[in-house]
Design brief:
Elements: E1 4-5, E2 13-16, E3 25-28, E4 31-34, E5 44-46, E6 55-58, E7 61-66, E8 75-76, E9 81-82, E10 110-115, E11 121-122, E12 126-131, H1 137-151, E13 160-162, H2 173-187, E14 192-199, H3 207-213, E15 222-226, H4 234-249, E16 255-258, E17 263-268, H5 279-293, E18 297-300, H6 310-314, H7 320-339, H8 350-355, H9 360-367, E19 376-380, E20 390-394, H10 400-409, E21 414-419, E22 431-435, H11 438-443, E23 450-451, H12 461-476, H13 482-485
Parallel strand pairs: 12-13, 12-14, 14-15, 17-18, 17-21, 18-20, 19-20, 21-22, 22-23
Antiparallel strand pairs: 1-2, 2-5, 3-4, 5-8, 6-7, 7-9, 10-11, 10-16
Helix pairs in contact: 1-4, 2-10
Amino acid sequence: MTNYLKINKADNVAVAIVPLQRGTTICIDGKQIKLLADVPAGHKIVINGIAKGENVIKYGFPIGRAKHDLREGALADHNDIQTNLEGQLDYSLLKINDIQPSFEPRQLRTFNGYLRPDGQVGIRNEVWVIPTVGCVNGIVKQIVDKVNADLGDVDCIDGIFGFPHNYGCSQLSEDHENTKKILRDMVHHPNAGGVLVVGLGCENNQPKVFEEFCGDYDRSRVRFMVCQDVDGDEVEYGVKMLKEIVLHAKACKRTAQPLSKLRIGLKCGGSDGFSGITANPLLGEFSDYLCGTQGGTTVLTEVPEMFGAETILMKRCANNKLLAQTIDLINDFKNYFLSHGEPVGENPSPGNKAGGISTLEEKALGCTQKSGTSTVRGVIAYGERIENDGLNLLSAPGNDLVASTALAAAGCQLVLFTTGRGTPFATFVPTMKISTNSNLYQKKPHWIDFDAGVLLTGKTMSDLLDDFIEKIIAVANGELVNAEKSDIHEIAIFKNGVTL
């Protein structure tokens, strides 16, 4: 096991794998370097002196520029490095790659999922209660609690859950449409064997209008209830409806399905200096495996955390139309920041900095590794659903629950979430946590589902990928992730507008 790592031959910094003490001598590229300060694990060591204003290079790309002269052997963190990011950029000279990546053929695999009438496949058979407006959150909770108490565990049902939120009224324009889209996407999600939509009756998100907005849906699987239209006790009425939905969902069975039916979201949060070395590259390898050899789909989001690495994704677009859409994806989100008077580089978080990430470019170069090397086949607007197999880019912010909800709403049955700091959260589909370091895995075994930190101690990427594939297939087959065992199921909708 090495105590430090130079990631790319062009880098002028290395990464400490373990905490290193001041005065320690390390050897990089045949050069003896004496450390001028204590260097925490995941943090950067200056290999060659870097002058003020000169770029700091990691992953072979600039991650910002030095705020002052940095001596050989110095610690380089957020106090020493300034972002190079600015507002909207002109990408008119950028061209897509002429040569598309190719992947070695792999055995086609299957999982046991729930084939829905619309052709989608779920990895869970849950029953959901979705409020059209926050005013009925309490009613939804009472209905769900009563049915769970009455029925207990039900054969072939993976759980009965309500999803409270604060929206559906006092919203305008695009902000209101965002709420409607996310709730509509949940109605159509294949992980739900049955859905009860509960409305109030006087909200902006009118139940009848929302029902029409949902388009064609399976009426044996999805039911609507309007509390103000119910004579008498709306909870009692809702319990009766939900029990009928449970009875329908109970008839659903798992059958063998090709991995091409999997749609998996890629997300990171609480990143550290190892995110771009272990867990995120592992997700990239898996994304290439699923998209490149199995015909499946992965979705990358967190647009602000693409800033500084966006051209890598742009060059991988399948055609110029997708390139134009990706440029709009980036510049529209930058405009969102600027329209609120915020700089586009206002990131990373305090936890990221403590873990060794100094600038948004550094975070982005690690974040985008989750997409592997596959060609970009689709660009999805917030609240819209997947239309193209293969790697897709989704418009959503970096916020963990908002972005993960958007991934699930787009049609992902599972979200893969890498983290170096740890988090217990989950969205409304299984949210599988992958640690960037083994210390986190050992400290929080009830949060973390898979340890990518073993890549730092000799495990090969090829062997770890094989283990990871088996783990994901097991989860798709019904194995619970830790967040599910802890009964964590939540949604968060992107708020971008006036509240009346």
